Amino acid sequence: MIDRRKALSAGLVSMGAGAAFAQRKQLPPAPVKDGKSALTPDQALELLIAGNAAFLKDEIALPDVSAQRRLELAKAQAPFVAYVSCSDSRVPPELLFGRGLGELFIIRNAGNTVDTVAKGSLEFAVAKLGVPLVVVMGHEACGAVEAAMSVVEKNTRFPGAIDNMIEPIIPAVLEARGKPGNRVENAVKANVSRVVRVLRSESDPLMLKPQEAGKLKVIGAYYELKTGRVDFFDRG
Ligand SMILES: [Zn+2]
What we know:
binds zinc ion; 47% helix; two-stranded parallel ribbon; five-stranded mixed sheet; 9 strands
């Protein structure tokens, strides 16, 4: 027999959660003009900062994921940010900024590095989709960066293709060596800065021209697991 008291309390709990859910504000999608994001690089960054501030206060708004929105997006996408982020399950960009369908164009791999395929994806986001902002984000206690540190400091070898995945992070580890402060954090930030530098200095006009015209910015970010805070740096 079902314990009535237990069933009641479970019902109350779910009603409570439902009420909290219903109280959340609805978030309109970021503005689009002529099929592309209508935001400047700085306006795009402001939306991310505001979204993360709401996330920190546990007041994140609900993005529009309705059937109508899906139908609208099936015709075309106009994201306002292209993101290079770590694959780490604790750092999903949409959730950290409370953004919805069709808004963030994301490249994720362990250690948030940019190889030829990632670079091509970013060029597509910029040239074809008109994204005004590229964010490269590292995070606290990144396992990929820690592995690269282990390669440098202990000559550790990893099986399979993991060594190849770690290799592009090694110059950042060497660059950050001996600096004061948290060693992993320093290496994570050096890795982000290196990727930002590479993307900014890319000679291909696909990335270069919009940066010169002020229509595109490439910036860095660091996510703190414990607090949920995203700090933007290398804002150029
Ligand atoms: Zn990571």
